[in-house]
Structures are given as C-alpha cells and as structure tokens.
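Sharing a chain and its predicted structure for anyone who wants a worked example. Both blocks are below, sequence first, tokens second.
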Amino acid sequence: MSNIETELEAMIDRHGLTHVVNTLAVICTEKAEHLRTNWQDSRTAKAWEADGKTLDKAARLICSDCK
C-alpha cells in the first residue's frame, strides 16, 4: 500500500468516509474559486467545480441515512 493510501485509510478511520469525501468536495470548490479569482482560469475552475459537485453527491449517497 502506498503512503497516500495509508494516510487516507487513517483519515477515514479517524473521521469517517463521509467527512473525508465531503472535505475533498470543499477543497475542490475552494480551488475552483481560487483559480477563478486569482488566475482568471475559468476552464480549469469549472473542472474543479464539477469534481467538487461529484464528490458532494458521493458524500450524500454514502451517508444517505445520516439525516
């Protein structure tokens, strides 16, 4: 197992899969905004934003019975 896999597994064990995936979604959204604001790179920002939305949907599916 690679180092990143080990670290992700530890994060999931500590915080739960839903929280880790939701945090990744937030990071993607913030990255998109940073690219839009500071680099005027709307094409790459759209890709990051789409990834964030996909991860947000995944987090909701993982935790469909959490609410």
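Comments welcome. Residues 3-62 form one domain.
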